[in-house]
Amino acid sequence: MDNKRILSIVGLVLTFFACMAVGYFIPIGERSASTLFASGTGGGGGGGGGADDVLFGGGTSGGSSRGTDASAPDASAPDASASNAENPAGADSRMQEGVTPGAAQTPGTAQTPGAAQTPGAPASASQTGAASQTAVGGATATAGTSATIPVIEGKPLVGRANKRFGFACRAKATVASGDPLEYRLCEVGTSEVKYRSTNGGFALVVPSESGKYDLVVENTRTREQTRMTIGGFDKVVKLSAAMLQEKLNKPMDDWFYIYFVEDKDLTIDYEYIPEGFVPARSVGALMSDRTANGWTIEVVGTPQYDEYNQVRRFKVRIKE
């Protein structure tokens, strides 16, 4: 075998190995395969992104940047649409970090339920759509929840109760769900319950320091509440000595007794009473004696009052 033939064989062998090396290190058609199912290509700083990431819609490329398609899900991070809904400013910061304008939604990636994705729409538009959908969903949820929130109808009625000390109050509330309701009168701005009712009616409610109570209506099943501050629970007028004397010497009016504490708590002192008469221990008995005997009652000194301005102690001089 001559040298020329030997050189030819060696050349063929070298050519063969060279072709194998080229085929091994430079895969044919990789670029087209990597973009077959993706409408956007990786960009931004950092390396480490493989063809599979783009091929199956991973949409993330490693490195310092989060990726070019911010709307695509990240298996190691919370859903972007949820975090954007809780913190709208977060969507803007994500866009500033590395969203490429014009990057489209990768097929197969998760979207917010109900949010329509426009083919070829920018990722920022996708985020805006997700945030809007969350807001609508929240509004719908609120509307649904409102069916169990009590609604107070009109203004509750407050008035004197049966010519006795205290007030009557009538309130009406409804709830779309039909759940049972409980009505409460609480100190204004607190949860301290003073009175309870299952039908909205309250009797003999004593005055409050502010003249007001908070009406709280609660759905007993869901514990949802509606609160309204209502007035009209004012203390009685504090009768001066002159006013009390005038009232004791006139026929009793319908609201006479609301200015005095109950008989068991009332003290009447006498500076003078005609001989032979037993001192009356109740204001009613004193008024009866005055009418029957034609007396004039003079109030001595300053009356004492309770916390509701009712007279609890006073002194009189009887004049025949």
> Order of helices and strands, N to C?
HHHHHHEEEEEEEEEHEHEE
Choose one word for the global shape: rod-shaped
Count of discrete alpha- or pi-helical segments spanning 4 or more residues: 8
In terms of DSSP E residues, the strand content is 15-25%
Give me the side-by-side strand order of the main sheet. 6-5-8-9
Total strands: the figure is: 12
* Class of secondary structure makeup: alpha+beta
User: Percent range for helical residues?
Assistant: 25-40%
Largest sheet: 4 strands, antiparallel
Q: Note poorly predicted spans.
A: 28-144
Distance from first to last alpha carbon: 166 Å
User: What is the residue-mean pLDDT, rounded to a whole number?
Assistant: 71
- What oligomerization state is this entry in? single chain
- Please give the radius of gyration in angstroms: 44 Å
